[in-house]
Each structure stands twice: as C-alpha cells, then as structure tokens.
Design goal:
This protein is mostly beta strands. The chain has 2 domains: 72 residues, Glycoprotein, Type 4 Pilin; 68 residues, OB fold (Dihydrolipoamide Acetyltransferase, E2P). It contains no helices and 16 strands. The strands form 3 sheets. An 8-stranded antiparallel β-barrel has the order 1-2-3-4-5-6-7-8. Strands 9-16-14-11 form a 4-stranded antiparallel beta sheet, with no helix packed on it. Strand 5 and strand 6 form a beta hairpin. The protein is globular. The N and C termini lie far apart (33 Å).
C-alpha cells in the first residue's frame, strides 16, 4: 500500500500486525503494540512511539510528538479532494480551539515552521508549513473554536 505523507510517499507492506515501511530508500520495521480508541502504540526500529489518529474515511490525521500529518492513500497522482487545494490550504485535523498564531499574513515561512497551535482533546497540535512559501491569508484568530476540515491558513509559493 502506498500512502502520501506530506510531500513524501511511504510504501507499507503488512506482515501480520507488523509492517515494513519504505520511504526515500530507507526501510524501517513497524510493530503495532496496541491499537485502541484512536491511539497507536508502535515500535519503530525498536523505538516506542505513540500516535493519535482521527479519520473521516478518506483521510487520516496522525499526531506524533505534537506534530500532525495528513495521510491519504496514493494513486500516483496529485492529491485532491474534499474541496481543498492541499498545496495552498491548511485545514484543522480535528475540532479544537486556536491557542496561538505564530505568523502574520504576507510572512515568508519555511517548511516545518509552526504556523499556529490548535488545542484538541487536551493535546496541543502544531499546524506546520508543508513547504516553503508565504502566508496568503490567516482564516482564524487566537481563542477561536474551529471544526474539522475548517481552513486555518492559506499559503502561496514564494
């Protein structure tokens, strides 16, 4: 199975409850220790990782160490769907409240830079720039409650 993960692709090969994951020529063993109620306890090459997952069926949001990633099944074509342009719109992975906005409109940002922080289910989720670009429009402010899939930030290429 191929999964689009940000701008990368991960090939997952199941082996019982375990997987071999290959990305950019690197192979890692993934062992599922426990999977329950939107929480996964994993051993990735012997290192314990806890991931929190929510899904709408087509996409899955995975939060690890405060970073949230959107996973979609890849068909080898550019991602699209749900009315969002994934190259320019960042949507809320789950309902929550905006705790901080770390950028302003027109600001140049780097890939991985935290744009804002969303609190959801007592977790702080950093919404990060998927690539280098400029903040075109901020759609939220501190203290605002947002719904899943609500657009938070619009970006444009530099």
């Amino acid at each position: 199975m191929k999964i689009a993960f940000d701008q990368s692709t991960i090939d997952l090969t199941p082996n019982g409850r375990n997987y071999k994951a290959v990305s950019d020529g690197k192979t890692v063993d993934v062992e599922v220790i426990r999977a329950e109620n939107g929480k996964l306890d994993l051993l990735i090459d012997g290192k314990h990782i806890t991931a929190y997952i929510s899904s709408d069926g087509a996409k899955r949001w995975v939060t690890v160490n405060g970073q949230t990633f959107v996973l979609t099944k890849s068909s080898g074509t550019k991602r699209s769907g749900a009315g969002h342009d994934y190259a320019s719109e960042l949507a809320a992975p789950m309902p929550g409240q905006i705790r901080s906005v770390n950028v302003s409109e027109g600001e140049a940002v780097s890939k991985g830079q935290t744009l804002l922080v969303l609190e959801a289910m007592k977790m702080e989720i950093r919404i990060q720039a998927p690539r280098d670009g400029n903040v075109k429009e901020l759609m939220v402010k501190v203290g605002q409650t947002v719904e899943r899939e609500q657009i938070l930030v619009k970006m444009e290429e530099q």
